[in-house]
Amino acid sequence: MPNDLDPKRKALQTTGTFNSRAAQVRHPLFQQSSFFDPEDLLQLKYETLRAVEIERCPIAKAARDFGLSRPTIYEAQTQLQQQGLEGLLPHKRGPRAAHKLTGEILQYVQEQTAAEPEIHADELAKRVRQRFAVKLHPRTIQKALRGKAKRGRPA
Predict the structure, then answer these.
(1) pTM of the predicted model as reported, rounded to 2 decimal places
(2) CA atoms of 122 and 112, how far apart (whole Å)
(3) What are the CB-based long-range contacts (under 8 Å, 24+) for 1-8?
(4) How many of the other CB atoms lie within 10 Å of CB of 77?
(5) Cα gap 70→7, rounded to integer Å
């Protein structure tokens, strides 16, 4: 098994495709060949799906042999069908939207901006904290107001 100085391992870790559960992979392909790398999660998912689709391997057996969970395999099947190989790549993690900036707070900020068009985001953040006990960065407020204006809505 490669050590921590291995450039491929570093590349896998950097791209989020490193399989930290490589020791659980039992499939013969990954045991008998230097080409098949149990640490390469993208290759592992692809070969798992190939075994399920082409060789008609049951999902439960594929999960055991390839060291993946059944939900991971089902999710990979869907991603491959919808997006091709790119769907097997890791997705950006983290919030998809501003989670503190609720609809109620955004409406309040828009009302404040309508009433005082020259108000700064710093002041709006201060008012939001006082009224809702939520700490928002002024930049979050600026982005939200600009986003609404770009979509043709009043900011």
Answers:
(1) 0.58
(2) 13
(3) 1/39, 2/39, 8/37, 8/39, 8/40
(4) 17
(5) 30
In single-letter form, the type of residue at position 147 comes to G
Q: Which residues of 105-141 are buried (b: 16+ CB within 10 A; e: fewer)?
A: bbebbbebbeeeeeeebeebbebbeeeeeeebeeebb
Q: Torsion angle, CA of 61/23/1/12, rounded to 10 degrees?
A: 80
Structure confidence by residue, pLDDT tens digits, 96-141: 667 888 999 999 999 999 999 999 999 999 999 999 999 999 999 9
> CA-to-CA distance for 11 and 18, rounded, in angstroms?
8
Which pair of structure tokens corresponds to residue 20?
């930290």
Q: What does the block give as tokens for 8?
A: 């491929």
